[in-house]
């Protein structure tokens, strides 16, 4: 695949755009031609940068549209795919770079389950973003080129299931109509508009197995084993197919890797590429997290005083503290989320054990005994402080870690309230915290509904601490207004306000 | 086809022991908790358990094939020991092993690439489940936050209505929406039901698609969340609309009148917590504190009244009421049981070790299942006959199961031929 000396400078190739008939690609066929070692490396790094940016957006809980806006500039610079009215040789070069860089990264990221998952996630997102950039005609042509067992829903069935199809597409159609120029003018969507849209929309049916997300979220009508998918839902279907296909290909690549005649010069390049794929680690601002490992804390937080800091904790931690107080117990994920957070705010190992033991055994008659606590839980908490087992210094969970864990089950309190709680419950609890203003409250609720949990949490912090922040700003004290991506960041900011402001938090 | 020789072997002496009648749940209750002795188990495994039928049900053919021979069975013993990775070559080995081992119950798991009994001889990565029936598990303990008549392992005709409704809703979704045809419901022996779906299409599903089906059904998301309300997108999805129509007609009788949950302080506090308006919620709590034991019907009306009086605008009361109907009555499913391919589930015709009830299959489309009259108990069937199942009340369920299994095998043979023809076609 790679030659040491470039023989071609692009001229030796048949500049045939027929190789890449569509802007978008399913990457079914691997490249077969030669490129230079330099191209190999730069193309791969360019694509990697784009994927990393996408991953960062996803982990910050950015919405699809926001991610698009953020990544677009970078995409145009590093990995453009221009509309087909440009000169064909430059189009060919773009598409070739896209094609080759994808396959190079496959070699780098097929090597472990974790890398494969992340690669598929980022590539699928990129695929979706690019699909959205296509014109309607391009989308139709592209869809036709993919071999899927779908059939158009007949007029007869459309009439028979009119109500069902409307129920399943009502909200999607509504939000599609809200993007129109018409809406900009009138600011409203009528039932008639929705009905007309429905009539003009094509529906396809295919075995439900092809659209698991549309099934699990009840976004499409399911009847006799078929999912009825509207034109506007095709992306979900194709993206799902793309992700599945890519995952299968990565596994095949991994199995083939030992037999691939890999050029010695490529190995270090590939290794470096996959190493570049690291997530961002949050460094605790206040610095107490780093030496909370053993006894060398400087925070002065003790088992007794932890309770006084509840107001400085983000909602997820308040919820865990409440759950702990109520049940005198927390399940594993909850214990991990809270105990590492407490470690991060400076509760040292000795005080932590005291705290957890008191909490677990405080249930009155019939509750857990100290013996049982020592037998079953002591190890767990000491382990978190690196005092048992592998002596690893465990970091407090960031929002991304919290959001990546399974949602809390019955009698579990871990997770992120902005994601896990129903709008009404969230509303109720935010009101209890003191968010009384309906407009502000709804703003937070809407953010959570849109999946922007960290922004919602950041907003809550800002609203609850409005007076203190204003006071600081007035005094010229610097305030970090970036989005909160870590529960300990929330805590640190609250303590920062304490230190720089005379007012009490509301 | 079913082991039923009558012999002179020692039948259980415990059979005729007086059974303590539990009268907790009202006069209608005839569930007799009966702890079977090990002699009971021996006798049942020797003469009653329909091994051949279970073999056919899991094998989908008269001739032993991978569907059975590479299928995992797990035994649970009286001591509490749990033995995984059993597998059998045929129905006879299956029978002989169970008779000899006398577990208190056995569970059915997935089909693996190698016979599970050989699992130690292959690398761990080989032991990935390939196929399994899709299963659903509905259990009354998951309704403890709404039922007041019983709790924990207890059931009565009042709370069994939740299960009957759940079966109705899930059964129609499985048949009408997903188009499954080969499904059978089984009483779990005490307080719930299982559903086993054997359509080929669903047997080969991976976990992500199993999850999709169960999440489609799991409207309340009950296992992952049991605190506040649910958010139901409007307009309702056709499945929700159909379910709502079934639930609405039962709400007043089953919840408001019979369970009457909100006359208890912790329950009405929970109801108030579910009201998305803080002002209204606090006002109701204050009002109810004055007359805490007023009926659920009264409290349900109080919500209406105060909502109007306080001119609450922050949420739509009718939508909220609809959601409460879902929240109190919609089927509560164990998502993990359905999703995980490695998960095992108790086989039909096992004995529930705590009640002595036989886990009989039933057809809800023919008649609603009543656990107090339709679930034969060991003590009862041994009274009817000690060795011949055909003379006992187990005959009905076994005949029904055989009819179901025979049809399953017949259809499967036909479909398999079609599948193979299609495969050869593709290859040429």
TrEMBL record, chain A:
Residues that hold [4Fe-4S] cluster according to the record: 316, 399, 416, 457
For this UniProt entry, the molecular function terms from Gene Ontology, in alphabetical order, are: 4 iron, 4 sulfur cluster binding; DNA binding; metal ion binding
Instruction: Give the co-factor note.
Output: Binds 1 [4Fe-4S] cluster.
Which InterPro entries does the UniProt entry name for this protein? DNA_primase_C, DNA_primase_lsu_euk, DNA_primase_lsu_euk/arc
BP terms from Gene Ontology = DNA replication initiation; DNA replication, synthesis of primer
Key words of the record: 4Fe-4S, DNA replication, DNA-binding, Iron, Iron-sulfur, Metal-binding, Primosome
Q: Which Pfam families match?
A: DNA_primase_lrg, DNA_primase_lrg_N
Q: One GO term of the cellular component aspect?
A: alpha DNA polymerase:primase complex
- Iron-sulfur keyword on record: yes
Q: What does the record give as cofactor?
A: [4Fe-4S] cluster
Task: Report the residue ranges that make up the DNA primase large subunit C-terminal domain in this protein.
Answer: 312-491
The similarity comment for this entry is: Belongs to the eukaryotic-type primase large subunit family.
Query: What PANTHER family has UniProt attached to this entry?
Result: DNA PRIMASE LARGE SUBUNIT
What is the documented function of this protein? DNA primase is the polymerase that synthesizes small RNA primers for the Okazaki fragments made during discontinuous DNA replication.
Question: Would you tell me the protein name for this molecule?
Answer: DNA primase large subunit
Name the gene for this chain: PRI2
From TrEMBL, chain B:
Which keywords does this chain's UniProt record carry?
Answer: DNA replication, DNA-directed RNA polymerase, Metal-binding, Nucleotidyltransferase, Primosome, Transcription, Transferase, Zinc
Listed name of the protein: DNA primase
Q: What GO biological process terms does the UniProt entry carry, in alphabetical order?
A: DNA replication, synthesis of primer
- Return the similarity comment: Belongs to the eukaryotic-type primase small subunit family.
* Lineage: superkingdom: Eukaryota
Q: Which organism is it from?
A: Dekkera bruxellensis
Q: Which gene encodes it?
A: PRI1
Citing just one GO molecular function, the answer is: DNA-directed RNA polymerase activity
Please name the InterPro entries in this protein's record: DNA_primase_S (IPR002755), DNA_primase_ssu_euk/arc (IPR014052)
The UniProt entry's GO CC annotations, sorted and at most eight, read:
alpha DNA polymerase:primase complex
The taxonomy runs: Eukaryota, Fungi, Dikarya, Ascomycota, Saccharomycotina
């Amino acid at each position: 695949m790679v030659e040491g000396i470039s023989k071609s400078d692009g001229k030796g190739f048949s500049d045939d755009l027929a190789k890449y008939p569509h802007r978008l690609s399913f990457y079914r066929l691997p490249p077969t031609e030669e490129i230079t070692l330099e191209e190999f490396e730069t193309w791969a790094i360019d694509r990697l940068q784009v994927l990393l940016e996408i991953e960062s957006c996803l982990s910050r809980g950015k919405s699809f549209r926001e991610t698009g806006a953020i990544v677009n500039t970078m995409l145009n610079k590093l990995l453009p795919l221009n509309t087909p009215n440009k000169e064909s040789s430059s189009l060919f070069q773009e598409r070739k770079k896209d094609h080759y860089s994808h396959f190079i990264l496959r070699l780098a990221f097929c090597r472990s389950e974790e890398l494969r998952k992340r690669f598929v996630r980022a590539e699928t997102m990129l695929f979706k973003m690019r699909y959205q950039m296509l014109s309607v005609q391009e989308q139709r042509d592209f869809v036709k080129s993919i071999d899927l067992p779908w059939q158009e829903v007949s007029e007869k069935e459309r009439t028979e299931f009119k109500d069902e199809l409307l129920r399943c597409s009502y909200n999607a159609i509504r939000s599609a109509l809200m993007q129109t120029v018409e809406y900009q003018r009138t600011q409203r969507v009528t039932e008639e508009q929705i009905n007309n849209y429905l009539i003009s929309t094509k529906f396809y049916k295919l075995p439900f197995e092809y659209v698991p997300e549309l099934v699990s979220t009840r976004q499409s009508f399911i009847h006799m084993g078929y999912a009825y998918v509207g034109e506007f839902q095709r992306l979900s279907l194709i993206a799902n197919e793309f992700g599945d296909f890519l995952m299968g290909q990565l596994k095949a690549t991994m199995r083939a890797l030992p037999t691939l005649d890999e050029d010695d010069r490529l190995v270090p390049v590939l290794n470096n590429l996959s190493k570049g794929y690291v997530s961002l680690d949050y460094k605790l601002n206040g610095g107490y997290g780093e030496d909370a490992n053993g006894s060398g804390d400087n925070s002065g937080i003790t088992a007794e005083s932890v309770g006084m800091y509840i107001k400085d904790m983000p909602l997820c931690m308040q919820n865990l503290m409440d759950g702990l107080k109520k049940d005198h117990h927390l399940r594993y994920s909850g214990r991990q989320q809270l105990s590492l957070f407490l470690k991060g705010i400076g509760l040292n190992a000795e005080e932590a054990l005291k705290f957890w033991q008191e909490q677990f055994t405080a249930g009155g008659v019939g509750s857990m005994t100290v013996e049982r606590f020592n037998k079953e839980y002591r190890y767990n908490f000491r382990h978190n402080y690196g005092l048992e087992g592998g002596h690893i210094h465990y970091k407090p969970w960031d929002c991304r870690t919290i959001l990546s864990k399974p949602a809390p089950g019955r009698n579990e309190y871990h997770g992120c309230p902005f994601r896990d709680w129903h709008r009404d419950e969230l509303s109720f609890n935010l009101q209890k915290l003191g968010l009384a203003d309906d407009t502000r409250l709804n703003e937070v609720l809407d953010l959570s509904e849109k999946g922007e949990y960290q922004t919602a949490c950041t907003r809550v912090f800002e609203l609850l601490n409005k007076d203190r922040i204003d006071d600081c700003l007035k005094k010229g004290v610097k305030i970090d207004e970036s989005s909160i991506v870590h529960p300990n960041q929330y805590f640190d900011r609250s303590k920062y306000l304490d230190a720089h402001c005379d007012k009490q938090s509301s | 086809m079913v082991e039923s020789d009558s012999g002179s072997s020692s039948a259980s002496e415990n059979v005729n022991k007086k059974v303590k009648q539990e009268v907790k749940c009202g006069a209608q209750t005839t569930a007799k908790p009966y702890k079977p002795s090990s002699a009971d188990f021996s006798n049942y495994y020797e003469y009653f358990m329909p091994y051949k039928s279970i073999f056919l049900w899991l094998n989908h053919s008269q001739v032993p094939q991978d569907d059975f021979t590479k299928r995992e069975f797990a035994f649970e013993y009286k001591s509490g020991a749990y033995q995984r990775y059993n597998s059998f070559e045929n129905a006879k080995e299956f029978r002989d092993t169970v008779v000899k081992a006398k577990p208190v119950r056995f569970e059915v798991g997935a089909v693996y690439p190698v016979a599970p009994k050989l699992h130690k001889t292959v690398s761990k990565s080989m032991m990935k489940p390939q196929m399994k029936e899709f299963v659903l598990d509905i259990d009354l303990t998951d309704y403890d936050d709404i039922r007041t008549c019983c709790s924990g392992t207890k059931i009565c005709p009042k709370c069994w209505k939740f299960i009957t409704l759940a079966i109705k809703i899930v059964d129609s979704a499985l048949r009408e929406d997903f188009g499954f045809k080969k499904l059978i419901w089984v009483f779990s022996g005490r307080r719930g039901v299982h559903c086993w779906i054997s359509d080929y299409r669903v047997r080969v599903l991976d976990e992500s698609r199993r999850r999709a089906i169960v999440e489609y059904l799991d409207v309340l998301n009950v296992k992952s969340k049991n605190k506040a309300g649910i958010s139901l997108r409007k307009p309702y999805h056709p499945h929700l609309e159909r379910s709502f129509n079934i639930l609405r007609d039962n709400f007043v009788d089953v919840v408001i009148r019979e369970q009457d949950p909100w006359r208890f302080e912790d329950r009405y506090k929970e109801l108030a917590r579910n009201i998305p308006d803080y002002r209204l919620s606090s006002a109701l709590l204050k009002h109810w504190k004055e007359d805490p034991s007023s009926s659920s019907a009264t409290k349900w009306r109080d919500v209406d009244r105060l909502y109007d009086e306080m001119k609450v605008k922050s949420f739509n009361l009718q939508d909220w009421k609809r959601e409460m109907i879902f929240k109190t009555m919609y089927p509560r499913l164990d998502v993990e049981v359905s999703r995980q391919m490695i998960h095992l589930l108790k086989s039909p015709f096992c004995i529930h070790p705590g009640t002595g009830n036989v886990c009989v299959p039933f057809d809800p489309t023919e008649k609603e299942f009543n656990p107090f009259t339709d679930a034969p108990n060991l003590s009862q069937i041994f009274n009817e006959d000690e060795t011949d199942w055909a003379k006992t009340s187990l005959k009905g369920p076994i005949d029904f199961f055989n009819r179901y299994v025979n049809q399953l095998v017949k259809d499967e043979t036909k479909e398999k031929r079609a599948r193979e023809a299609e495969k050869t076609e593709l290859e040429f």
